[in-house]
Amino acid sequence: MTVTVHILEDDPGVSDSLDLLLRGMGYRTVAYPDAESFFEGALPASGDTVLVDLRLPGISGAQVVRWLRSLGAPPRVIVISGQARAAIDAQIAGIDHLEVLRKPLNPQKLAALL
How many C-beta atoms lie closer than 10 Å to residue 96's C-beta? Predict the structure, then answer.
């Protein structure tokens, strides 16, 4: 079974880089420039992974994370952000056991989480 990694990232350079990196690692990827596009697609499977940038236009990444966590069989969620740690913590307050990667992303750390 191939895991799909859903990439929610509004910066085209970061999104393209993640897509290229993850495809090279053997993952199937689907990229979305915003949460609204993500919600228009099919629900991610419980075995999938969703990379969510916290600072998305429109619906925030934190709102997406909370929604994903409310699903009966949620996918794995990894937050990505270039914001200060205090800003990240404020946005994801109350969400337990959430993995966070800071930008610029380290490919080795990302690979270890997947």
Answer: 6
Kindly tell me the sign of the dihedral angle through the C-alpha atoms of 76, 26, 112, 107. Answer: negative
Place of tokens 């270890």: 112
Phi, psi of 9 (to 5 degrees): -150, 125
Question: Angle at Cα 109 formed by Cα 105 and Cα 112, nearest 5°?
Answer: 145
Q: Is the dihedral of CA 20, 24, 60, 91 positive or negative?
A: negative
The class level of CATH for 4-113 reads alpha beta
Query: pLDDT means per 10 residues in the chain (114 residues)?
Result: 90 95 95 96 93 95 95 94 90 89 90 88
